[in-house]
Amino acid sequence: MIYKYTSGQPIDTGAMVMEFEAEPVAAFPLPHTTEDGRFCFRFTMEPDDIVYGLGEAPRGINKRGWVYESYCSDDPFHTETKQSLYAAHNFIMLSGSKMFGVFADFPARIRWDIGYTKTDEAVVTLDGTDFDLYMITGDTPMDIVRQFREAIGKSYVPPLWAFGYQQSRWSYHNAEAVDSVIDGYNNAQIPLDCVYLDIDYMERYKDFTISEAAFPDFKNYVQDKRRQGIHLIPIIDAGVKKEDGYRVYEEGKQKGYFCKTADGSDFEAGVWPGICSFPDFLRPEVRQWFGSQYQYLLDMGIDGFWNDMNEPALFYSVKGIEEALDKAAALKGQNLDLGRFFNLKDTFMGLSNRQEDYASIYHQIDGKLVNHQKVHNLYGAGMTKAAGDYFAEHCGEGEILMFSRASTIGAHRTAGIWFGDNHSWWSHILLNLKMLPSANMCGFLYCGADLGGFNENATRDLVLRFLALGVFTPLMRNHSALGTRDQECYRFENTQDFKDIVEVRYRLIPYLYSTFKRASEQNDLIFRPLSFDYPDDSVARECETQLMLGDECMIAPVYEQNVQGRTVYLPEDMTFVKLSGTRVQTQTLEKGVHYVKIALNEVPLFLKKGKKIPLTNSALRTRDLDWDNVTFIGDDV
Ligand code: GLC
């Protein structure tokens, strides 16, 4: 059952598609208080209880023992000391002595203290008093998730080719660079469906422009790539460059479509192109206008986009940088002692994403000015909705690939997400794994991390192990940052190992795609914690390095360097399958702990008893996959 409790005058976040009769918040069944304009509720946790949820967030599948914040944040250091990443996914669920889920339909900051201050107590604080709270009761975690997912509506399904392997880098600067990536993959005979265009395809980082120097005949170029079965996916940033004569800026300015400051002037801040204005995505007419801008690229044959910097990321505000420069000028020529040096350093280091800058932004909602901090978590979702609504109206359903960096629940109906600027760290393989079931619970099915890691230099073995997990993630994209070591598959020695891994993905696409479609249609999870399937198994309940996938499989990637395998826990007898290129090796293993050997070119998979899954032959593009020609692996085959 789902129960709704309303306080004040909530802003419509668009998260829910089902309507519920509301009761006043006083009837909310968990202990709660309102103090200093903040609403706070709490619940106690028994030692064995598990708290799930929060979607894209730091730390484990079980969220206990830390404090999290729902506040979409542009932060490229995803360490375990962080409290938020790019998303605000306000759903949690207690499983154990009691069983319930809570969804806080509230677009401002929320603090989730899940046993951080007091080990056995969760304290959730909403930074305001206008909200809807939903209490979801059920018999099992899956039952609660299904009801919640039904209430928030069906998850976005991308085109089939978006399940192919995708290669990205900041940046393939021009047509020659893109061609050499495609050649690299073709020569190594490694499958590939998409190549990404990061910010340098634009003319000086201006949205909805193409650099003539980099791509002299973009339309023909895009179409030529499409004939080769390659989709080019350009990035779109939230900030619109402030520049006289730049059509998008001029139009937005003239129509009054940009976010404002208290004095009614446009809010301006620096991002990639320098000073930008920020479309007020909370206004329907602005969304309509911004969405229609994508047509420029659709007309060129583009059929996929990634929306970025939409927390929104602010490198500096005009006011902030001026103050910092004044401070630096005043200190010029002085002997800087400890206090003054670090104060100056902190001033510059603290310029980006400043709370006071966010607090100076105003949106228009139903004709009223609303401070950004009250609706912060809706901004990125608004940008995604702008694009998604336009595509829904003007392109066929499921024709356009779209995913975003910032997100909130509701945006899962329009787009996927990627987990932002991770690192080429071994620990980030596990972080990627742990976010998958949590993101699924919140409706985000099409998701994945930058495989190989975005920041810092990747090693060959890290990329291979990351890819072996990525074989199962709906978005399978290798992406890396400017200035880091090249990490396309063909850059490393013995490309056959990479081919062996990526081919497994293509062999599994019929299975993965149908599992995905079913999960969207039936409000199901693609990835589940083991505890969902084996609630009475104490080892399974604690497992955070393996996941259930679909109804048939369990996955357990290798996540450490210099190892030839890993320890895996089987909650029941299973078939251990090693997939590598065209090779399939199977072995029946009994319930319990096993050390299994997994070579760098192998993808491990565990099949439940009595289950089987289809494999097709690999192909260089998804369009060339032969869906009629499948063999099955698993029991009774
Ligand atoms: C942001 C994105 C990253 C992209 C970069 C340049 O950091 O998260 O994926 O490569 O901007 O556009």
Protein described:
This protein has 15 helices and 38 strands. A 9-stranded parallel β-sheet has the order 26-25-23-19-15-14-13-28-27. It has 3 domains: 2-152, Sandwich (Immunoglobulin-like), CATH 2.60.40; 160-243 and 271-313 and 367-490, Glycosidases (TIM Barrel, Alpha-Beta Barrel), CATH 3.20.20; 512-634, Immunoglobulin-like (Sandwich). The protein is globular, with a radius of gyration of 24 Å. Helix 5 crosses helix 10 (379-394) and helix 12 runs parallel beside helix 13 (496-521). The two termini are 41 Å apart. The site of alpha-D-glucopyranose (GLC) has 9 residues, from loops.
Strand order of the largest sheet: 26-25-23-19-15-14-13-28-27
Using the alpha-carbon principal axes, give the shape.
globular
Biggest β-sheet description: 9 strands, parallel
Q: Tell me, what is the CATH class of the largest domain?
A: Alpha Beta
CATH-level-4 superfamily name of the largest domain: Glycosidases
Count of alpha and pi helical runs? 15
Strands, count: 38
